[in-house]
Design goal:
Blueprint (H helix, E strand, L loop, with lengths): L1 E3 L24 E4 L7 E8 L7 E10 L4 E2 L13 E2 L18 E11 L11 H8 L3 E12 L3
Antiparallel strand pairs: 1-2, 2-5, 3-4, 3-7, 4-6, 7-8
Length: 151
């Protein structure tokens, strides 16, 4: 699988529009080469460079296997064709953009192809999604973006 964004390149800088310094909206994402047998997709965005350990910015799951993109500015009201959004480490549903306290942080956008939908309600955590997905991941890919706040 391949995951891309028209907003930033792999290992490139995430524009401030998609961060707490801008509009704090999710970036557009597209993917290709989803394996045969995929029944659902899950997306997790996290920051392993956070001071207190990995910080979760976005959890989305049960996206239909036929979906090939998420537009910019996905909100909790956006119709994800049955997909659900989980709770991030800002303690809210949906996307929470990069907002590092200092330095340049890396943001991992990880897409998982699963052989079944996950039996989880809306609001599940990253840990719940990954635990439920265990043994059902057909393929995964990631896109890394970086962000450094202006002083």
């Amino acid at each position: 699988m391949k995951l891309e964004s028209s907003a930033f390149s792999a290992n490139g800088l995430i524009p401030s529009e998609y961060t707490c310094d801008g509009k704090n909206i999710s970036p557009p994402l597209t993917w290709t080469e989803v394996p045969t047998g995929t029944q659902s997709l899950a997306l997790i965005v996290d920051d392993p460079d956070a001071p207190r350990g990995t910080f979760v910015h976005w959890v989305v799951y049960n996206l239909p296997a036929t979906l090939t993109e998420l537009p910019a500015h996905v909100t909790t009201e956006t119709d994800l064709s049955g997909g659900l959004q989980g709770k991030n480490d800002f303690r809210s549903l949906g996307y929470g953009g990069p907002c590092p306290p200092s330095g340049t942080h890396r943001y991992f956008f990880k897409l998982y192809a699963l052989d079944q939908p996950l039996k989880l309600p809306a609001g599940a955590s990253k840990a719940q999604v990954l635990a439920t997905a265990e043994g059902h991941i057909l393929a995964s890919t990631e896109l890394i973006g970086r962000y450094h706040r202006r002083s």
